[in-house]
Hints:
By secondary structure, the chain is of the alpha+beta class. The protein has helices at about 55-60, 115-120, 120-125, 130-150, 190-195, 235-260, 260-265, 285-290, 305-320, 370-380, 385-390, 405-415; strands at about 15-30, 30-40, 40-50, 70-75, 85-95, 155, 160, 175, 180-185, 200-210, 225-230, 280, 320-325, 350-355, 355-365, 400-405. The protein is elongated and about 90 Å long.
Amino acid sequence: MMRTHLASELRPEKHVKVGGWVDEVRVLGSISFILLRDGSGSIQVTAKKGAADERIFETIKGLKKEEVILVEGECVENKTAKRGIEIIPESIRVLSDIKEVLPIDMSTKIETTLEKRLDARCLDLRREDKQAIFKIQSMLIQEMQAYLKKNGFIQVFTPCLMGVASESGSEVFTVNYYDRKAFLRQDPQLHRQLTIAGGFEKIYDIGPSWRAELSHTTNHLSEHRTCAVEFAFIKDEYDVMKLEQDMVQFVLKRLMKDCKDELKLFNADLLVQKKFPVLEFPKLYDILNELGFKPVAGKESYSREGEKALGDYVREKYKSDFYFVNRFPFAEKPFYVMRYDDEPTWARSTDFMFRGIELSSGGQREHRYEKIIEQAKMKGMPLNSVEWFARFFKYGVPPHGGFALGLERLTMRLLNLPNIREAVLFPRDVDRLVP
């Protein structure tokens, strides 16, 4: 290997090799400093007159910020250095130099617009705080997988290309598929249900979905990722909420333990109740009316402004950043959700909320073939657009349900990021398709 150590692994030793990016260079008369940064952190390289070869000083003097270098030398204690140690260089080799002026300023002290940073995303990602976002996001996903594995779930991969749009409406991307038209999935929902129909009782799928929504808000993307969970033999949607609650609490506990330093960069504080509050329609209309919102009862739920106000209400009343909303009006839900048989106005449909923003939509699915067809007709859907899915429900499918938790939204809200695009390596939205 070219390197013997990462910055985070260094201890006082006789001889080490480290490599990384030049973060800062200071030349102060008889002493020169390099702050060298790799993926694990930073380390100080110190060259002193009389202790280092003169060629070392010439090399340091010519270094530019963000050049990639390899340093060989002795790692020694230095209580005044940031990490209590430094490297006394014996040789410095430039592995990759800088060809032109950097397109953005890399300093955290200088504010650069999000658009400019996304245009130069590769450079933007080199900053410690940006890398921390994705270390935390990676840990979120790993711990979700750990929880689901522990509870008997298996990971599956459902298709991203579909012959029929997964939901009604125009918010779908079309693609050329050989000699016919195909669609990018809006959600892995229907194929998860078909997998349950195939006899897999506990599954999850982590992957992308697309929505052709002409939205420029700080909460929306054209391409996003979810942890989508489905399981069979549930009693009702409360089983789904319980599973999602337990998974999120498990993940947060592990995250607070394993990502302390990264979380500190964002002052991430949480109000988390042991049991997340559940707000339900139609009683929820009374709360919305108190907050100044007047949705049509039984026909609609709430606007984005009402959603935010509800988040503030729950934080103040229940001292929780997380909560569920249940029993949505069926009028605004897809054909595959289950309704209450005795109160068909309402659906067994749940949203999982975090600080006034929806993280997931889920609940109990309809597993009775006749009901699926009836509800598709109610939604005005051509039966040939749902029969490919619905026909398998003629052959015995257990009661089931699940949810699809948005990974970027969870990351954004957890770290108080001002824009969801900060939580995506290379975001895709209405205006951005490169880099």
